[in-house]
Design a protein that fits this description.
Blueprint lengths: L10 E8 L6 H17 L3 E9 L11 H14 L3 E4 L5 H11 L2 E3 L1 H12 L3 H15 L4 H4 L18 H36 L2 E8 L5 H9 L16 E4 L9 E6 L9 H6 L1 H4 L7 E7 L5 H14 L7 E6 L17 E4 L8 H13 L2 E7 L5 H9 L3 E6 L5 E8 H4 L12 E2 L3
Helix pairs in contact: 1-4, 4-5, 5-7
Length: 432
């Protein structure tokens, strides 16, 4: 293998682990290549890539004894200081491996946390990353302080006091409480912003999808957002919202939101820490699932995204599938039709299919709406209040007789929920 001149701390061995639960060889290959790409996205120089197929997990080292010894020989001969495993290690397994290999050991969660820490730009993003890091670190403090004895105690310096380990756990626990408090405040602020947006009759379209599917590139084309799009995993970490760069035949403003990409086996700690970011999806009026159509593993990635959307409780939300990067497909491929969601073949690089996507977005948001001026009597105040809370009232004015009139935009399905259907008789279909 060709040697690199990279610093020792950036040279790493990647270990892909297959517990013989995967029956598909292509899926196993996909998981391995994705993990290598994750490592490279963090700035590591992959010196060796080792596969470990095993029927069981060792309680002490996770790896089997034979594979652990093989890994030790490579680490010693190549003077490697970092070993990255595609699995989640327990604190004891991590410590035992580090003792055996005499090198730093990093698991999948630790690797993703390092990438997130480097990419976070916004205040809320940094808070979320710090919370995830501290939650992860709190179970791994033994490594650093196992050699220290108890400090002297309180008054008169009597008693055993607390160990350095206990002190650090207490300090980390206090910091975690502070971070959660700040994130809760940010979460409440976001809820207030969503309420204001509803009151302001704005529509929100969220771009979701697997990491590196081209969400940011599409976002820039729809909004002229000017965000930096890079060909690497988790290039976008912070949620960004911009106004649409094209017009709709409606008084409402359409906003687009670029969100963090998904990935297979996303650590639970990250999902919990990034709740404030992922909550943006719940307030969206429409989801655009951006798919890398040129990816050979696209079907697997689609299922992974659908699974995460289902876990977030937004799978039933109106959705458009944007089959991106068709310019990279040399031959015409048969794409199985999806009866549940609209599918648009496009390219965020060449602009092909963009106008069709805009038309479908417009139809999805406004195609079934009725619009017009409605006059509410005092006894119909509850109807007006419900429409106002739902964001259906776009504008209000007072007529010459001192009566309130409201410009209403409402779907046919919602209209059927009201018994006072007669007051909506002057509404007309709103063409997209």
């Amino acid at each position: 293998m060709e040697k690199t001149s990279a610093p020792a701390d950036l040279r790493a061995i990647i270990v892909s682990i297959d517990l013989l639960r995967t029956s598909q060889d292509n899926l196993e290959q996909f998981n391995s290549s994705e993990f290598i790409e994750l490592a490279r996205s963090s700035g590591l120089k992959v010196e060796h890539h080792i596969f470990s197929k095993q029927n069981f997990v060792s309680a002490s080292h996770f790896l089997t004894k034979g594979k652990a010894d093989e890994l030790k020989d490579i680490v010693e001969s190549e003077n490697i200081k970092l070993v990255v495993l595609d699995c989640e290690l327990s604190p004891s397994q991590e410590r035992n491996l580090e003792k055996l290999l005499c090198a730093r050991v990093l698991d999948r969660t630790g690797l993703i946390l390092d990438i997130f820490a480097a990419r976070a730009q916004s205040d809320i993003g940094k808070l979320q990353v710090e919370l995830a890091q501290l939650s992860f670190l709190s179970t791994r403090l033994v490594r650093g302080w196992s050699h220290l004895e108890r400090q002297k105690g309180g008054i008169g310096l009597r008693g055993p006091g607390e160990t350095q380990l206990e002190t650090d756990r207490r300090l980390i626990g206090n910091r975690i409480k502070q971070l959660k408090k700040k994130l809760d405040k940010q979460h409440n602020q976001k809820n207030l912003n969503r309420y204001s947006r509803r009151k302001g009759s704005n529509k929100l379209v969220a771009l979701v999808g697997y990491t590196n599917a081209g969400k940011t590139s599409l976002f820039n084309m729809l909004t002229k957002g000017g965000l930096q799009a890079e060909d690497k995993l988790f290039a976008t970490l912070d949620t960004t919202t911009r106004r649409a760069d094209f017009k709709f035949k409606t008084l409402e403003t359409v906003l687009f939101s670029d969100t963090v990409g998904f990935i297979s086996n996303l650590p639970t700690k990250l999902v919990e820490s990034f709740k404030a970011t992922l909550d943006d999806l719940a307030s969206a009026d429409l989801l655009i699932h951006v798919i890398d159509a040129a990816d050979l593993n696209r079907d697997h990635k689609i299922k992974e995204v659908d699974l995460i959307l289902d876990e977030l409780g937004v799978s039933s939300m109106p959705q458009i599938r944007a089959l991106n990067k068709i310019d990279l497909i040399k031959s015409e491929e048969i794409w199985p039709a999806n009866n549940q969601h609209a599918e648009i073949k496009m390219s965020s690089e060449t602009g092909e299919g963009l106008e069709e996507l805009k038309n479908v977005i417009s139809e999805s948001l406004f195609g079934g709406l009725l619009c017009g001026w409605v006059q509410f009597s005092p006894i119909q105040a509850s109807v007006r209040s419900k429409l106002f809370d739902s964001g259906c009232i776009l504008e209000e004015k007072m007529d010459s007789n001192g009566q309130h009139q409201s410009l209403v935009s409402i779907s046919q399905s919602m209209l059927e929920q009201f018994e006072e259907i007669e007051i909506f008789k002057n509404l007309k279909p709103l063409s997209p």
